[in-house]
Amino acid sequence: MSDEKHDHVHGPDCDHDHDEQGEDVFIVTDENGVEHEMVMVYTFQSQEQAYAVLLDRNDPEADGVIFRVEEEDEDAFLVNIEDEEEWERVVTIYNEIVAQEGEE
Predict the structure, then answer these.
(1) What is the rounded distance in angstroms from the CA atom of residue 36 to the CA atom of residue 57?
(2) Which pLDDT value is given to residue 52?
(3) How far apart are alpha carbons 86 and 34 in whole angstroms?
(4) Taking the model in full, what pTM does it have?
(5) 83 located within any domain
(6) Which residues, in sequence order, are CB contacts of 24 under 8 Å at separation 6+?
(7) Which domain covers residue 94, as residue numbers?
(8) 62 located within any domain
(9) How many angstroms separate the Cα of 43 from the Cα of each of 24, 33, 36, 66, 85?
């Protein structure tokens, strides 16, 4: 998992697209102002909070990025994880999930 954190994320109601394969595609702008097409590949829960793992659609070998999923009314938004303690906890949980799936 990358420690890279993005400054700005467009949620499902902003530049969200479903391509012909039915992928959830999000446009994510990094700290350098570069836009990336990100595909949501996995979601999981921790302490009753949902998280999403996204991969760069054009660079599938790159590390995934984890965002917190926040809901407001009927909309869901991807939010940066700013709290270092929360980030460490979420990365640890995700790594455990990956390790378990690798054993199957």
Answers:
(1) 8
(2) 93
(3) 26
(4) 0.69
(5) yes
(6) 12, 16, 18, 39, 40
(7) 8-103
(8) yes
(9) 12, 26, 19, 9, 19
Size of the chain, expressed as the number of residues it contains: 104
Residue range 40-89, pLDDT digits in tens: 988 999 889 999 999 998 887 888 889 999 988 888 888 999 999 999 99
User: Residue-wise over 73-82: b if at least 16 C-beta within 10 A, else e?
Assistant: eeebbbeebe
Q: Please, which residues bridge with residue 77 across strands?
A: 70
88-94 long-range Cβ contacts below 8 angstroms, 24+ apart:
89/46, 89/47, 90/46, 90/51, 90/66, 91/1, 91/66, 93/44, 93/46, 94/1, 94/42, 94/44, 94/51, 94/53, 94/66
Number of domains in the chain: 1
Identity (one letter) of the amino acid at 44?
A: F
Residue 2 maps to a domain? no
Task: Report pLDDT for 22.
Answer: 61
